[in-house]
Write a structure and sequence with these properties.
Elements lengths: L5 H12 L2 E7 L2 E7 L2 H13 L24 E3 L19 H7 L43 H7 L21 E5 L2 E2 L5 H10 L4 E4 L4 E6 L3 H11 L7 E3 L3 H4 L3 E2 L2 H7 L6 E6 L14 E5 L4 H7 L6 E5 L11 H8 L5 E5 L11 E5 L2 E6 L9 E2 L10 E3 L9 E4 L2 E4 L9 H17 L6 E5 L5 H13 L2 E5 L1 H12 L10 E11 L5 E9 L4 E7 L2 E2 L5 H4 L1 H13 L11 H9 L2 H9 L5 E2 L2 H11 L12 H10 L12 E3 L3 E3 L1 H12 L4 H23 L6 E5 L6 H13 L3 E3 L11 H16 L4
Parallel strand pairs: 1-3, 6-13, 8-11, 10-14, 17-20, 20-21, 22-29, 24-28, 29-30
Antiparallel strand pairs: 1-2, 4-5, 4-13, 6-7, 7-12, 8-12, 9-10, 10-11, 14-15, 16-19, 17-18, 18-19, 22-23, 23-24, 25-26, 27-28
Helix pairs in contact: 1-2, 5-9, 13-23, 15-18, 18-19, 19-21, 20-21, 21-22
C-alpha cells in the first residue's frame, strides 16, 4: 500500500542501524537497496519484519544480494515509480493516538482541529482522484500547505512525512454549522452541534466517506421521528460511543471484540446488548447492538461534548446511496434533519461504514466498506502473469472485484442495484476503479442470472474491452469466495465440500437455488445435496412476505389437506385469510411459483409460523434476524426437531413441520420452537456431511448470506470440527453477496486457465 508511512519507517530504521542505500515505491511494492555490515543488515531486516507501521501489510519479503561499484554514504527516499499490481490504495483509517493527543492539547497548534491526521491515520481512499497517491492526486489539492505543515511534510524524520492529507487550522479544511440554508457565524460548530443533539434535534454530519445522520441514542421520540422521516420502521440503527468505557455501559464486550472495534478500520461491531439504558426503538426485537467508536477527529471532538452515545446512520433517502456533496446533501436531506455539521474537504469516493461480528470461528465481515476497502485480498496461488479479471458481483449487497495477479481488489459495499440511483453509482464507481488502477480486463465474470443488472452491464463491458465473458453460477462463486480467502488450505485444484445457504441464486436447472451442498473447486462444482425444493408462490414477492413461504412449506409437506394439520387458533385464522383458489393453483400447478431450495425462505416460513413478520418484512432478513434472537436463550437446554434425510444428502422438512405445529398446539414458547428449528437444521446438515465422508472431502466450506446467522455458523462449524473436518469460513469478505465478486473472479480465471490450449 502507498500512503502508510513505510518509506519513512525504512529511512528511520536505516538511521538506527547504520545502513546506507535507498527506498522507493515501485510497480510491485517497495524496493530497498541496503548496504552495511552483516550485523547491521540483519538488524535492518528484523526491523522491517517486526516494526512495520500501523497501516502497512507485508505479504512477502524477498532478499537478494546486490553489487555496486560505488557504495552510498547515506540513506535516501527516492521518488515513487507509480503503482502496479503489487501496490494498492489505502483505506481510510481512524485517528491514531498521537493525533488524538494533539487535538486534546491546548498548547498544540492542532488543538481542537477536526481534520488532524498523519501517515498513520486519516482519509485515504475517500479523497483520492487518481494515482500515484500524491497530494495533487487527492481532494486535498484544494488546500495549499502553510510553511509549518510543509516543514513536517518534507522531513523524513517526522511522522507527517509525505502525509498527503496533512493540514492545520491555518491552511486546511474548515468546519461550519448550517441550518435553514444559512451558515451560523460566531458559533463553535461542534459546540453548537452538541447542544442541538442534546435538545433532541436530528443532524447531518459530513464524515470520512459521506454524510451521516445523528440523533441522541437515549431520546426515543427523536429516534421515532427519524424512523418516520427516513421511512425505516424496523431496521436496526448503528451507534457511536465516545470511547470503550462508555460502550461498556450498554454492551458486553470481550477482549477480542475490543481489539476489533479499536482497529484502524473502526468498524461497526455487533455486540451483545445489556438491558436498559438506550432507547428501545434503536434495534427492535434484537439482542445485539451495532456500535462503533469515533473514526475521525471531528467525531472525537463531538462525542467528547455529549453525555450519551448517538445513533449514526447513513445520510441518505430510503435506499439511495449515501450523500457526499454539500449542495446535494442540503437539498436531499433538509426534510430529514434540523441542521448540518459540514466542511469544505471534498469526498471523492463514497464509502459507508463497515460492519463486523466476532463468531466462534473468528471475525465475520457483514459489510466491507470504510477502513477495509479497497485493500486487496491476497491470493498467493494466482500468478503475476495471469489474465486480468473484472468480476461484476451480484444484484444485492453488490461489490465488484478487479483480480490483478495475486491481488484481488474488492470494491467497497455499493448496495442493491435494483435502485436506479445505486445502479448509476455502481457504474460510476466501477469506471473510477478501472481508471485508478489503470485496469483493462482480459476476462469479465458475471452471475448466470439472466436478469441481473450487473450481468447485463458486464456483457457490455466485455464487448467494449474485447474481453472474454465467463458466466459463473451464484453458489459456485460463494464456494470460491471462501476458498479464495484461504490460500494455504490446499492446492487450488483440490476438491472440497461446501454448504452454501442463502436466499436466492439462479440454478442451471432454472430453479431458484439457496440451500446447496456442493463438491468442487475453483474450476468446477457438482451439486450433491441440499434442501429439497418447494414452491415459491409469487416469486420475488415471497422474499418480502413470509406467509407465502409458510404456505409453500405446508403444501409441500401435507399437500392440499395442509390446513387440517394446523389446529384452530391465531395461526390458522391468519392462514385461512390468505388461502384462496388462486394460491392453491399456484402451489399445485406451479403458476408463478418456481421451485426453490432456499434456506432463507425456509427460515422465513418458520418465522411466519411463529407470527413473526407474518404479512411482510420491511427489510431483507428481518424475519430471520428476529427468529435467531428468539432462539438464542434456549439453545443450551433444547434438542432439535428431527429432519428427514432422503437419499443420504437431501433435507426434507415434513417431520419438522408436524412437530412444530404440535408444539404450537401445546402452546410452547416461540423461543423454544425457534431453538428446536435451528438445532434440527444444524443436525440435519451435520448428518449429511457424515454420510458423504471421504478423505479427500475433509475440508468443508461454509458460505452464503444465511451464515450471517451466528447460531447456524457457530453451531455447524463446531459440529464439523468435532468430527475432525477442516472448516473454512469467511473473514476478509462477507459470506453474503458482498463477497460474491471475489469468487466470480477466481472461478472465471480457473476456467480460463483450464480451457487454455496446451502447447
Amino acid at each position: 500500500m502507498q500512503g502508510v508511512g513505510f518509506r519513512p519507517h525504512v529511512w528511520q530504521l536505516a538511521q538506527r542501524t547504520a545502513v546506507a542505500g535507498s527506498v522507493r515505491n515501485d510497480l510491485n511494492g517497495v524496493t530497498i537497496s541496503a548496504f552495511g555490515q552483516a550485523p547491521a543488515l540483519d538488524a535492518f531486516v528484523r526491523g522491517l519484519k517486526d516494526g512495520a507501521p500501523r497501516l502497512a501489510r507485508i505479504d512477502m519479503i524477498e532478499i537478494e544480494d546486490i553489487a555496486s561499484e560505488t557504495l552510498p554514504t547515506d540513506f535516501r527516499i527516492l521518488q515513487s515509480d507509480g503503482m502496479g499490481s503489487g501496490t494498492g490504495i489505502q483505506p481510510d483509517a481512524a485517528t491514531c493516538s498521537d493525533c488524538l493527543c494533539e487535538i486534546a492539547d491546548p498548547t498544540d497548534r492542532r488543538f481542537g482541529y477536526a481534520f488532524a491526521n498523519c501517515t498513520q491515520c486519516g482519509p485515504r481512499f475517500s479523497i483520492i482522484r487518481h494515482v500515484p497517491y500524491d497530494r495533487d492526486a487527492t481532494t486535498m489539492s484544494d488546500f495549499d500547505m502553510c510553511d509549518a505543515c510543509r516543514e513536517e511534510y518534507e522531513n523524513p524524520g517526522d511522522r507527517r512525512f509525505h502525509a498527503q492529507p496533512i493540514a492545520c487550522p491555518a491552511c486546511g479544511p474548515q468546519l461550519w454549522f448550517e441550518a435553514l440554508g444559512q451558515r451560523l457565524d460566531g458559533v463553535d460548530p461542534i459546540v453548537h452541534a452538541a447542544e442541538c443533539l442534546k435538545a433532541g434535534q436530528i443532524l447531518a454530519i459530513k464524515g470520512l466517506g459521506g454524510f451521516q445522520i445523528a440523533v441522541d441514542a437515549c431520546n426515543e421520540s427523536a429516534i421515532a421521528e427519524l424512523r418516520r422521516k427516513k421511512r425505516r420502521p424496523d431496521k436496526p440503527f448503528a451507534l457511536m460511543a465516545r470511547d470503550l468505557a462508555q460502550l461498556q455501559e450498554y454492551c458486553t464486550i470481550s477482549k477480542e471484540e475490543a481489539a476489533l472495534i479499536e482497529m484502524p478500520a473502526a468498524p461497526i461491531l455487533l455486540l451483545e446488548a445489556k438491558p436498559g439504558g438506550l432507547a428501545a426503538n434503536i434495534a427492535p426485537h434484537q439482542d445485539r447492538l451495532g456500535f462503533m467508536l469515533p473514526n475521525s477527529p471531528l467525531h472525537h471532538l463531538l462525542m467528547a461534548r455529549l453525555e450519551h452515545p448517538v445513533v449514526l446512520t447513513s445520510g441518505n433517502i430510503s435506499d439511495d446511496p449515501q450523500e457526499i456533496d454539500n449542495t446535494r446533501a442540503v437539498t436531499r436531506l433538509q426534510e430529514l434533519v434540523d441542521g448540518f455539521l459540514t466542511h469544505d474537504r471534498t469526498i471523492e469516493n463514497r464509502v459507508d461504514d463497515s460492519v463486523l461480528r466476532l463468531d466462534r470461528p473468528g471475525p465475520t465481515v457483514l459489510r466491507r466498506a470504510r477502513g477495509l476497502a479497497p485493500a486487496s485480498v491476497h491470493c498467493a496461488f494466482v500468478s503475476e502473469t495471469a489474465p486480468k479479471v473484472l468480476a461484476m458481483g451480484g444484484e444485492l449487497k453488490n461489490t465488484f472485484c478487479l483480480l490483478n495477479g495475486p491481488d484481488a481488489i474488492v470494491s467497497q459495499h455499493i448496495g442493491d442495484l435494483k435502485n436506479a440511483t445505486v445502479f448509476a453509482d455502481y457504474k460510476a464507481t466501477l469506471r473510477q476503479f478501472l481508471s485508478l488502477y489503470d485496469f483493462r480486463p482480459d476476462i469479465v465474470a458475471v452471475d448466470r442470472h439472466p436478469q441481473y443488472l450487473s450481468s447485463g452491464y458486464g456483457r457490455r463491458l466485455a464487448d467494449e474491452f474485447g474481453a472474454d465473458l465467463v458466466e459463473v453460477q451464484h453458489h459456485h462463486a460463494h464456494l470460491a469466495s471462501c476458498l479464495g480467502e484461504h490460500a494455504g488450505a490446499g492446492e487450488p485444484g483440490d476438491e472440497v465440500l461446501a454448504i452454501v445457504l442463502d436466499g436466492t441464486g439462479w440454478g442451471p436447472d432454472k430453479t431458484v437455488w439457496g440451500g446447496e451442498i456442493l463438491k468442487g473447486n475453483f474450476s468446477r462444482y457438482e451439486r450433491i445435496g441440499g434442501l429439497i425444493p418447494v414452491r415459491l408462490p409469487g416469486g420475488d414477492a415471497a422474499a418480502r412476505e413470509p406467509w407465502r413461504n409458510l404456505m409453500a412449506q405446508l403444501h409441500a409437506s401435507f399437500g392440499v389437506e395442509m390446513m387440517k394439520e394446523v389446529k384452530p387458533g391465531e395461526l390458522r385464522t391468519l392462514l385461512e385469510g390468505k388461502q384462496s383458489a388462486v394460491l392453491e393453483k399456484m402451489l399445485t400447478d406451479g403458476v408463478n411459483s418456481p421451485l426453490t431450495s432456499s434456506a432463507g425462505r425456509f427460515f422465513d416460513a418458520v418465522a411466519a409460523a411463529l407470527r413473526i413478520c407474518f404479512d411482510s418484512q420491511s427489510f431483507e432478513g428481518q424475519a430471520a434476524m428476529q427468529l435467531e434472537c428468539l432462539a438464542t436463550p434456549f439453545l443450551a437446554e433444547e434438542e432439535g426437531y428431527e429432519i428427514e434425510i432422503e437419499n443420504g444428502t437431501w433435507l426434507s422438512f415434513g417431520t419438522l413441520w408436524r412437530s412444530l405445529l404440535s408444539d404450537l398446539e401445546k402452546q410452547q414458547s416461540p423461543g423454544r420452537i425457534a431453538a428446536r428449528v435451528h438445532l434440527g437444521f444444524i443436525d440435519g446438515l451435520a448428518r449429511v456431511l457424515e454420510n458423504l465422508g471421504g478423505e479427500k472431502d475433509r475440508t468443508v466450506v461454509l458460505s452464503g448470506g444465511v451464515f450471517q446467522n451466528a447460531l447456524l455458523l457457530d453451531g455447524l462449524s463446531s459440529r464439523c470440527s468435532e468430527r475432525g473436518l477442516h472448516v473454512l469460513t469467511q473473514s476478509k469478505v462477507p459470506p453474503n453477496d458482498g463477497g460474491l465478486a471475489l469468487g466470480q473472479a477466481l472461478v472465471a480465471l480457473a476456467k480460463a486457465q483450464r480451457n487454455k490450449p496446451s502447447r
